[in-house]
Amino acid sequence: MRESPSAGRPARSFLFCGVYGIALAALIFTYLGTYAVLDLFLARPYVLGTHTEVWMGWHGMGCLFVGLCNLLAARWNNARAQRDIAVATAIIFAVWCLQNFRLMLGDSFRPLMWSNVIGCAIAFGWSMLTALALHRKVAAV
Predict the structure, then answer these.
(1) Domain residue limits at 65
(2) Which pTM does this prediction carry?
């Protein structure tokens, strides 16, 4: 039986979200050495109060976790498990997109942060499409 042309698309979604999640973590963790990179995205003073670096560390680990889960899911052959990861990924990227969009309406972020709003929106949309495709695959079994 021949695979359909769309058979590799879920893996592409997982690869995009995996690389993007790890890239976000790497970006966030630059604070450990210098704030120069974060200053491209964030306006000073940072809005997280006295625990800014603690919150950045937690968020960076969350981004790293989402990225790693997606890279691992790209290798799986279990459609149900992949669907579940795609749903969880869609939810977290939707939340991050909405949070960053809301913050962009204030003066906390610089214009370059719009790229993250758009990146999170793409990750959300692609993950939802992947979850729907995988749901149909699971339901057909």
Answers:
(1) 10-140
(2) 0.87
**β partners of residue 42:** 109
3 is a domain residue:
no
Within-domain flag for 1: no
Domain membership flag for residue 95: yes
Query: What's the mean pLDDT in 113-139?
Result: 95
Residue 2 lies in a domain: no
